[in-house]
């Protein structure tokens, strides 16, 4: 396995990891943020708000972890695109949908379920992405070189 | 109640996708400009005719009906860079709120609507061609998105 394949695989796993951690953090932090107007209305003091946020500092650390994993995955994606064409790399990256599905079901904190409609939906999305990205043979010869240069920037942040 | 919730959530998701797509189109424009400048510098063409942000295409480039990529000023480049990053960050923040409400296994595949939006935008903005295969792909993505969004529950 050369370093471009390694970059592609790590882009996939870092992306999946960042999504799962981001989900976990959003579940924990958002209810607290919603309480903010109530605190202000009830006249709760500044120190109480600060201490409440301080109890959440673990989650802010995880948020930072998720964001840095995301940034790393974008970097790995750029490295991988130097070797692989977008039509190979992007469908591979969308395997992340399946991985997120599996891990979200397995993770205890998230309470996500398996269902037929979800599985079929993900399968259809994967097929569609592969079809959209696959170049027709004419276009392949025509802009094999220009695609390598220009499409990189278009899809470098193709995932949130 | 439930339908309205699902609809609001989908609207939020679509806003997220539009932000990231906008960011990608800006990045594409930026990369095209940088490439054009590079090739101009190599060919020794002087780029002294700097136009404000390249929106005025009626300067005689009739070979392509869009502004000459090299004729974007440094101010325009900065504008593209800042907006490219800004809308990406806005998209990330919106995405965070989507995640808080929706199952991640449902929401993450919905992001591939991005592919459809960018494909359509690239047809309009960059004169790309869409073939039959890609139309089938778009339909497949849309039906997958329909299936996934049908199951949104509070």
List the topology elements.
The complex is a heterodimer of chains A (160) and B (154).
Chain A: H1 3-34, H2 36-42, H3 46-54, H4 57-81, H5 86-93, H6 95-106, H7 116-133, H8 137-142, H9 144-155
Helix pairs in contact in A: 1-4, 1-6, 5-7
Chain B: H1 2-43, H2 74-101, H3 104-110, H4 113-126, H5 132-150
Based on CA atoms alone, the radius of gyration of chain B comes out at 19 Å
Query: What's the average pLDDT of chain B?
Result: 78
Distance between termini of chain A? Answer: 27 Å
For the report, how would you describe the main beta sheet of chain B? none
State the order of secondary-structure elements of chain B, H for helix, E for strand. Answer: HHHHH
* Count of DSSP H/I helices of chain B: 5
Structural class of chain B comes to mainly alpha
Report on this structure.
The complex is a heterodimer of chains A (160) and B (154). Chain A has 160 residues and is mostly helical. Chain A has one domain (3-155). Chain A is built from nine helices and no strands. The longest helix of chain A has 32 residues, at 3-34. Chain B is mainly α and 154 residues long. Chain B has one domain (2-43, 68-150). Chain B is built from five helices and no strands. Chain B has helices at 2-43, 74-101, 104-110, 113-126, 132-150. The longest helix of chain B is centred in the N-terminal third of the chain and has 42 residues, at 2-43. Chains A and B meet through helix 1, helix 6, helix 7 and helix 9 of A and helix 1, helix 2, helix 3, helix 4 and helix 5 of B.
């Amino acid at each position: 396995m050369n370093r471009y394949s390694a970059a592609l695989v790590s882009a996939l796993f870092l992306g999946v990891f960042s999504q799962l951690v981001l989900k976990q953090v959003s579940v924990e932090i958002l209810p607290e943020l919603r309480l903010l107007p109530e605190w202000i209305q009830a006249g709760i003091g500044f120190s109480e708000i600060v201490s409440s946020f301080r109890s959440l500092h673990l989650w802010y650390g995880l948020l930072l972890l998720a964001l840095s994993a995301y940034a790393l995955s974008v970097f790995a994606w750029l490295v991988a695109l130097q070797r692989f064409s977008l039509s190979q790399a992007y469908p591979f990256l969308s395997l992340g949908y399946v991985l997120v599905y599996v891990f979200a079901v397995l993770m205890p904190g998230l309470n996500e379920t398996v269902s037929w409609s979800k599985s079929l939906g993900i399968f259809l999305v994967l097929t569609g992405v592969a079809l959209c990205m696959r170049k027709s043979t004419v276009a392949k010869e025509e802009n094999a070189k220009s695609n390598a240069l220009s499409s990189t920037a278009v899809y470098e942040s193709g995932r949130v | 109640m439930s339908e309205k919730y699902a609809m609001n959530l989908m609207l939020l998701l679509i806003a997220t996708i539009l932000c990231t797509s906008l960011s990608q189109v800006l990045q594409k424009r930026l990369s095209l400009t940088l490439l054009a400048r590079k090739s101009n510098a190599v060919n020794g063409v002087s780029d002294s005719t700097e136009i404000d942000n390249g929106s005025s295409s009626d300067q005689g480039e009739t070979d392509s009906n869009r502004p000459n990529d090299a004729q974007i000023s440094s101010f325009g480049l900065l504008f593209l860079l800042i907006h490219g990053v800004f809308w990406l960050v806005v998209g990330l923040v919106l995405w965070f709120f989507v995640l808080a409400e929706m199952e991640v296994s449902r929401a993450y595949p919905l992001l591939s609507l991005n592919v459809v939006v960018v494909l359509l935008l690239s047809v309009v903005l960059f004169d790309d061609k869409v073939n039959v295969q890609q139309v089938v792909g778009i339909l497949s993505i849309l039906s997958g998105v329909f299936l996934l969004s049908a199951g949104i529950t509070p």
